[in-house]
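Q&A FORM
Asked by: J.P.
Topic: structure of Transcriptional regulator

PROVIDED:
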Amino acid sequence: MEKALWYLIAGTRGGENRARIIRALEDKPRNANQLAGTLEVDYNTIRHHLEMLADHDVVERGGQSYGELYFLTDQFMHHWDEFETITEHLE
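REPLIED BY: S.T.
REPLY: Here is the structure written out as tokens.
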């Protein structure tokens, strides 16, 4: 998971937005539309980042396919300190 987090957050152009999505989901589960509005990022961009995060077991989907909520996975939460360390490199 640590290598995947470095890649997702620090190794690609979209890392800052992915970190913002993770922080928003830490606050409460949200759907893609809510995230787009909260973060003021295009809906399709949010969907792309959510797919990347889901592919690497950072987030998981819950609920109906329309308006489904996204949650941080337990696996990711065990690596929260590593996430914090990585995001320090973004600033």
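FOLLOW-UP: The domain at 2-88 is CATH 1.10.10.10 (Arc Repressor Mutant, subunit A).
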